[in-house]
Amino acid sequence: MDQTLQAVLAATASFFVVSLILASILVICKGDAKRRRNNRSVSPVRARNSALPKPNTAPHAGLSSMYTGESATFDPSLNHVSMQELVQVTRNFSPDLIIGDGSFGLVYKARLNSGPVVAVKKLSPDAFQGLREFRAEMETLGKIRHPNIVKILGYCATGSDRVLIYEFIEKGSLDQWLYDTSSEEDYDALELRLPLSWHTRMKIIRGVAKGLAFMHNLDTPIIHRDIKASNILLDANFEAHIADFGLARRIEGSHSHVSTQVAGTMGYMPPEYLHGATMATVVGDVYSFGVLMLEIVAGRRPSFPFSGEDGKEVRLMEWINKMVQERRYMEMVDASISKDDLEESMVVEIFKIGLKCADEMWKLRPSMEEVVEHLDRILA
Q1: Is 54 part of any domain?
Q2: What is the per-residue burial (b if ≥16 Cβ within 10 Å, else e) of 170-196?
Q3: Rg of the chain in Å (alpha carbons)
Q4: pLDDT over threshold 80, residue 38
Q5: One domain, residues 92 and 198
Q6: Each residue of 228-237: pLDDT tens digit?
Q7: Rounded to whole angstroms, how far apart are CA atoms 111 and 109?
Q8: Is residue 116 located within the same domain as residue 261?
Q9: For position 87, which CATH number holds?
Q10: Phi and psi at residue 329, to the nearest 5°
Q11: For residue 249, what are the β-bridge partners?
Q12: CA–CA distance from 242 to each of 1, 59, 230, 287, 353 (Å)?
C-alpha cells in the first residue's frame, strides 16, 4: 500500500479514537455534576436570587429614600408637611399640575391635606451641593417677610431630592399679563386678561423696587441675580411679589459675591456679567430692574428682536436709547395702554429712572433705596 495513503488512514483513525475518549470523559463529568446538583436542597442560582432585593414597585419610586429625611416649616399657620404628602398632593409631580419653570426646577400647584393651596418647587439634583448648604439657605430665605417677596413656607429633603413650598400667588406671572402666553398655559379656567393699565404697571414697578430695596438692605444683603418678568408674580390686587430665589446668594460682609458661573437671563443681564466679570453685585440687580421697568412701560421683551422703522432688527434697549435721543417718549409707551390723562412729564421721568438703573456703567446706577424714593415722589 502506498505510504502516503497509510499515513492518512493512520491519522484519521487516531483522530476518531481521541474524539471518542474526550466525549466519554465529558459525559461522565456531566453526570457527576447533575448528581451533585440533585443532592443539594437549594441551587446556587436560587440562593443568589433569594438574596437580591425585590424591585421597587412603589408608585413614587422616583424620589430617593422617600420615607426618610427631614422637613421644616417657616409659617406658624402651616402644619408639618412630609415628602410623602407632597408626592400625594402633586400626584407624583404630575405634568398636569405644572404652573411654572423656574431656575433649577419645575413649580407645581397643589392643595395640602390641611387645606391651603401652595406652589411646590421640585429642585434639580444639582441645585445645591449638599444638605447643609441647602438647609442654611432655606433657613435664611424662610425668615424673609415682605409684602413684595414670595414667602417660602417650608421644605422637604430626602436623599438627593429637595422640594420647596411657596405661598401660591393667584394671578400668575407678570410675563403672562404683558404678553399673550395663553397657548403656553394649561389652567382649568383661563381668565380673560385685559391689558394692564398705566396705574397698574406703576404699582407693579414700585412693588418690585421695594422688594429689591428690602433684600439689598438686610444686615446680610441678598442678591437675586435673575430679576425678570416671569419671576414677578401678581396677586389678586395686582401687587407684585418677587419670586424664584434659585439664583439668590447671601452676601457676607460686602455687597458682592464671587462666582464662577454667569447667572441670569439674556436681555436682563448686566453688561459686566457678559464681559467676564465674576462678581455678582446689588448693582447687577439694579440693572435688571431697569430693563424690567422699561419692558413694563414699552410692552416689549428685552431678549426678543423686533423690526425697527428702517426694517432692520433691533432690541429693546437699543431701540429705547435711539427713541430717547429723538425725545419720542410717548411713542414708546405700550400701544395697549390708554393715553387719556397720561401726562408726558411723568412718562419722561419713568423712562429716565429706568435708563439710569440700566446704565452701562455700574458705578452710575442708583441704589434701589434711591429708586424707591424717586418713584414715591413722582407717583404720589
Answers
A1: no
A2: ebbbbbbbbeeeeeeeeeeeeeeeeeb
A3: 33
A4: no
A5: no
A6: 999 999 999 9
A7: 7
A8: no
A9: 3.30.200.20
A10: -65, -50
A11: 223
A12: 107, 35, 10, 16, 20
155, 78 Cβ separation under 8 angstroms: no
Neighbours of 67 (CB within 10 A): 11
105 SS3 class: strand
Residue 98's identity, in one-letter code, is I
**Exposure string over 287-316, b if 16+ CB within 10 A, otherwise e:** bbbbbbbbbbbbbbbbeeeeeeeeeeebbb
Q: Any idea which of 84-98, 127-141, 316-330 has the lowest mean pLDDT?
A: 127-141
Using one digit for the tens of pLDDT, what is the confidence trace for 240-292? Answer: 999 987 566 655 444 454 444 456 788 999 998 877 666 778 999 999 999 99
For 377, phi then psi, to 5°, come to -70, -45
Distance CA 131, CA 160 (A): 8
Distance, in Å, from the CA atom of 236 to the CA atom of 241, rounded to the nearest integer, reads 11
Cα–Cα dist 363/380, whole Å: 28
| Helices and strands counted in the chain (H then E) | 12, 14
Distance (Å, whole) CA 54 – CA 250: 44
CATH for 307: 1.10.510.10
Calculate mean pLDDT across residues 190-201.
83
Residue 352 annotated as lining a ligand binding site: no
Total domains present in the chain: 2
Asked if 359 is an active-site residue, the reply is: no
Q: Which three cell numbers stand for residue 17?
A: 479514537
Q: Mean per-residue pLDDT for 23-40?
A: 52
CB 291, CB 358: distance < 8 Å: yes
Range of the domain at 144: 70-167
Q: Are 241 and 233 in contact (CB under 8 A)?
A: yes
Q: Given the residues 75, 101, 219, 226, select the one marked as catalytic.
A: 226
Longest Cα pair distance anywhere in the chain, in angstroms? Answer: 128
Closest by CA to 331, choosing from 318, 348, 315, is 348
Handedness of CA 340, 346, 348, 350 (dihedral sign): negative
